[in-house]
Amino acid sequence: MHIAGPKAVDFYLHWVTRFYRFLNKQPEDTITQQEMDSYLKHLSKRRESWQVDQAAKAISLYQFFNNRKEVGNGCKTIDSRDQWKIAADDMHKMLRLMHRSYHTERAYLSWLRRFYRFAGGRPPATLESEDVKDFLTYLAVEQNVSASSQNQAFNAILFLFRHVLDKDIEHIGEAVRAKRKQRLPVVLTRAEVDRLFDQMRGLNLLMARTIYGCGLRLAECVKLRVKDIDIERKAVTVRSGKGDKDRETVLPTSLTPTLEAHLEEVRRLYDDDRRRDATGIMTPGALEKKYPNAGKEWPWFWVFPSLRESREPRSGILRRHHIYPGNLQRAIKAAGNRAGIPKRITVHTLRHSFATHLLEAGYDIRTIQDLLGHSDLRTTMIYTHVISKNRHGVVSPLD
Fold first, then answer.
1. Residue 1 has what pLDDT?
2. Domain at 81-181: CATH code
3. Which residue of 77, 121, 195, 260 has the fewest CB atoms within a 10 Å radius of its CB?
4. Which of 242, 247, 319, 321 is labelled catalytic?
5. 274 a catalytic residue
6. Which has the closest alpha carbon to 225: 294, 279, 161?
7. 217-250, pLDDT tens digit by residue?
8. Which of these is catalytic: 68, 162, 167, 348?
């Protein structure tokens, strides 16, 4: 099992022992969610948030494997289809315990269903590395999936093997890999950016300008919170971006007046929620346990909130979420068509344009890498291929 490193195991045992001692119960006793919440609330008054988070994970893992052991005692009498259902349920729980996103959760479970069909319903415990290799080869050769889809499938099945079946996958390099196509990013000229924005209005225009001006991904933009905007320092902090990394990027001076006016409108929506005593917005896991009312505080409110409340797909709680990202995708595409720009424009095109225009302005590639949040410089280097100036200094014979 690849959940906690050797150094963390002792701490996990420490938290589980203290938990049962706090409740005056034995490890085999049934524990309710209310009892666990009570202990974590008690712990949050004395410990740092990361310690509360570690304790919660340790206790949840212990309960998970304790319950799983009880179910496992009767596995020999369970048919193959039910064993797959149990494996899917275990995978679902492990994804939650490890705080994977809802998007990742859905994607991994979808690949699990495809792997189940490919395996012909054989019991999951009988599957080996060879089955995974054959599945990946099948995806590349017969299904013609992209390299990114094949990699996601591999990550999903690897998660199943490591965290549910407690197995390692070997010799996976022998599988046929989908070819990764090298495509240059679509980039707009500065004039085309102006033409695009001329065709947009209201909130969609503000979000588009924010993405272009700060170099954000769409998901990063819609998840911005009030405290992430520092107007005095002209900076935007991106929390838990791609790869779960934080970074800081620039806040354009030209965007400030519009953004301040927008936040005044958002404040009125926030004040109305507080008058109604509405459920607070979602906050990161450990924070919600240590400061359960943080979601009702202004600094944590969404910069781009949805006008309507909706239920969380996981908990069913009715609360206000950030704006739906698909709205901006459609608005950008429509604006590009109206502007008559003959390029395939998406929201991400604005991020590509941000990087390229900075490079054309002479900014250092490492600086651009930091602003974009790329872990690998080679990812940023792709923009050197699309700058408007001839990077080779070659003069065409026609000229």
1. 47
2. 1.10.150.130
3. 77
4. 242
5. no
6. 294
7. 999 999 999 999 999 999 999 987 666 678 999 9
8. 348
Q: What is the Cα–Cα distance from 311 to 316, expressed in whole angstroms?
A: 5
Burial class of 251 by CB neighbour count within 10 A (0 to 12, 13 to 18, 19+): buried
Residues constituting the chain: 399
Choosing from 217, 223, 290, 296, which is the catalytic residue?
217
Tokens of 9: 């195991």
**Residue 322 is among the residues annotated as catalytic for this protein:** no
Mark the ranges of the chain whose per-residue pLDDT is less than 50: 1, 70-74, 399
Query: Catalytic annotation on 374?
Result: yes
Given the residues 39, 62, 270, 383, select the one marked as catalytic.
383
Active-site position among 133, 320, 351, 357: 351
Of 165, 132, 244, 170, give the one whose Cα is nearest residue 2. 165
242 is an active site residue: yes
Q: Which is nearest to 238 in space by CA: 256, 214, 258, 257?
A: 214
Q: Which two tokens stand for residue 23?
A: 């409740």
351 assigned to active site: yes
**190-385 falls under which CATH superfamily?**
Intergrase catalytic core (1.10.443.10)
Give the domain ranges of the chain.
1-72, 81-181, 190-385
85 is catalytic: no
